[in-house]
Design a protein that fits this description.
globular; 81% helix; 0% strand; 209 residues; mainly alpha
């Protein structure tokens, strides 16, 4: 059974990489003229998209690595680099504004809101790494998989609740508040990415330990 700190660290990593705050401006812009019921439908579809993609990454990630003969340590390094680039983008890139679209709600709830904005390369890569290596590398891998499945479900629920409360949260934080929190989250993501890269390098080159 993974330790509580490892479980919490994994949950935080997945949620921060999904970064529901980043989806709030798009969600608010595209649902500005919708009623509450339609807005909740969009939030639900986007969250289910996140859940489906991350569960798919968990289920098929190890098989893909095996099929292409990719070592877990190598993928950990590659995933860490991708996540680091995402973190740098979160910290350095100027916030983007989005305008309402006439596209149907179901369309933008899945693409681009559900993916790639929320369930993008970062959370997908991290889930593949966690499912391949295990959470904290304590105990049987199947127990780690059960814990990871629960964490993915919790992350999707947090995403749904974030979008559901986007209207009051967006008004309370404002564009500046969301921008500040996104940049702070980017710093945390960068630290997680560097830890992944270091872990992969030490596993590839054990003499460095």
């Amino acid at each position: 059974m993974p330790d509580i700190p490892d479980i919490l660290k994994t949950l935080i990593a997945i949620v921060v990489l999904i970064n529901p705050l980043e989806g709030i401006p798009l969600f608010l812009a595209r649902t500005a003229t919708m009623g509450d019921a339609a807005r909740m439908t969009v939030a639900r579809k986007a969250s289910l998209t996140v859940l489906a993609l991350l569960l798919g990454a968990m289920a098929g990630g190890k098989a893909i690595l095996y099929l292409f003969g990719i070592q877990i340590a190598t993928f950990t390094i590659a995933g860490g680099i991708i996540i680091l680039l995402i973190a740098l983008k979160m910290v350095l890139e100027a916030p983007k504004s989005d305008t309402p679209s006439a596209a149907p709600a179901g369309d933008f709830a899945i693409v681009p809101l559900g993916t790639p904005l929320l369930a993008g390369p970062g959370p997908i890569s991290s889930v593949i790494v966690f499912s391949s290596k295990g959470i904290g590398q304590h105990g049987p891998l199947w127990i780690s998989d059960v814990v990871l499945l629960v964490l993915i479900a919790v992350s999707a629920l947090i995403t749904y609740l974030s979008l559901r409360t986007a209207l009051p949260v967006g008004r309370w934080l404002g564009p500046t508040g969301i921008n500040v929190l996104t940049r702070l989250a980017g710093i945390l993501v960068a630290a997680i990415a560097l830890q992944m890269i270091l872990s992969g390098l030490l596993e590839t080159f054990p003499a460095w330990k």
